[in-house]
Design brief:
Layout: E1 7-12, E2 25-34, E3 43-44, E4 48-55, E5 58-62, E6 65-69, E7 73-77, E8 82-83, E9 85-87, E10 92-100, H1 104-110, E11 117-119, H2 125-135, H3 140-153
Antiparallel strand pairs: 1-2, 2-10, 3-8, 4-7, 4-10, 5-6, 5-9, 7-11
Helix pairs in contact: 2-3
Amino acid sequence: MRPSANSFRLLHRPTPQPMPDLPFGASGVGHYVALPGFRDPVAVKDFVEVFWGVSGTGALVIDGMERRLKPNQVALYFPGMRHQVYALDEAWEYVWWCMDGPLAASLTTAFGLTASVYDAGPTPLALLHRLMRTIQDPSPEAERQASVLAFQLL
């Protein structure tokens, strides 16, 4: 069955910054199904954002070049980059999560990841949905657990 409307589930940490004792925090997570013609508002953002393709193909402009994100691939943006994300000619399902804080970018690059598209394998939807449940809890323990989940996703 083809979706008849864009479907978005997005959640954010209840606080604007991670706890001071965390080297990075999970600041947001989402699960989207975008129909042809969908365009996310273009913006420069101050966090690491990872997109993981589930089905269909979408596009991200990274350093001025359109890159395709297909199923089983991830794409990354880093703080200070212009985020430009849009669906192409089919329904595009993808998940994303954001990380902020003093070491978010350096921890990501320590894994050899830069702003690009990578083959990554099947989307770990169960882990991402766990992050969705955890990120909503305002307790310090939940914030630490959300950071652990984001790190596992890397």
